[in-house]
């Protein structure tokens, strides 16, 4: 399955880079608030990554990196989520996601379920290994693979659905 959504690689000199990053940062602030209404909603649905994936894949690594770095920091500052103790691991995973999504979009120039799955698995596997090195606790580092599978599926299938919708709307 493939989506014909338009993909871009915006530069830091383009004002749209910052406007789109702001839009995705707001999404990454609002979606976690909704998910955290449910028990273990954050660790289960991994909402802080969703709009980073969309922004980086659609508008390039620069939008993705701005979203990846600022979303968790602003969320932690405003709401205490993520907690400061896990913020470094989440920042690592967010940056890896932005880099992987931007790279995949630039190489393929199209969106597929397989490409989104590859992006999500790559940032999760590498990010979990880095987290293991940071926290020295394998079980804690593998939390996303223990309870975050619904969130990963949301990123792949929800992201693909959003890209299909954007293609239909000619965005």
> SSE string, helix = H, strand = E?
EHHHHHEHHHH
Main sheet characteristics: 2 strands, antiparallel
Global outline = globular
Low-confidence stretches: none
Q: Name the beta content range.
A: under 5%
Indicate the radius of gyration in whole angstroms. 15 Å
Q: What structural category arises from helix and sheet content? A: mainly alpha
Distance between the amino and carboxyl termini = 19 Å
Helix proportion: over 70%
Please report the number of helical segments: 9
By DSSP, the count of extended strands is: 2
In spatial order, strands of the major sheet run 1-2
Rounded mean pLDDT is 97
Output the keywords:
171 residues; mainly alpha; two-stranded antiparallel sheet; 9 helices; 75% helix
Structural features, described:
The chain contains 9 helices and 2 strands. The protein has 171 residues and is mainly alpha-helical. The longest helix is centred in the last third of the chain and has 23 residues, at 113-135. The two termini are 19 Å apart. A two-stranded antiparallel ribbon has the order 1-2. Helix 3 (50-59) runs antiparallel to helix 4, helix 3 (50-59) packs across helix 9 (149-168) and helix 4 (61-79) packs antiparallel against helix 5.
């Amino acid at each position: 399955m493939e989506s014909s959504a338009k993909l871009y690689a915006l530069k830091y000199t383009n004002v749209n880079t910052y406007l789109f990053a702001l839009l995705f940062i707001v999404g990454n602030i609002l979606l976690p608030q909704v998910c955290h209404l449910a028990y273990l909603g954050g660790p289960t649905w991994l909402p802080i990554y969703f709009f980073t994936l969309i922004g980086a894949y659609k508008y390039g690594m620069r939008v993705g990196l701005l979203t990846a770095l600022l979303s968790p920091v602003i969320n932690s500052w405003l709401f205490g989520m993520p907690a400061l103790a896990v913020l470094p691991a989440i920042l690592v995973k967010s940056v890896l996601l932005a880099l992987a999504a931007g790279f995949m979009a630039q190489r393929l120039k199209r969106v597929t379920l397989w490409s989104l799955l590859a992006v999500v698995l790559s940032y999760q596997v590498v990010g979990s290994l880095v987290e293991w090195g940071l926290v020295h606790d394998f079980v804690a580092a593998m939390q996303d693979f223990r309870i975050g599978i619904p969130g990963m599926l949301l990123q792949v299938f929800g992201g693909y659905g959003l890209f299909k919708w954007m293609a239909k709307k000619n965005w």
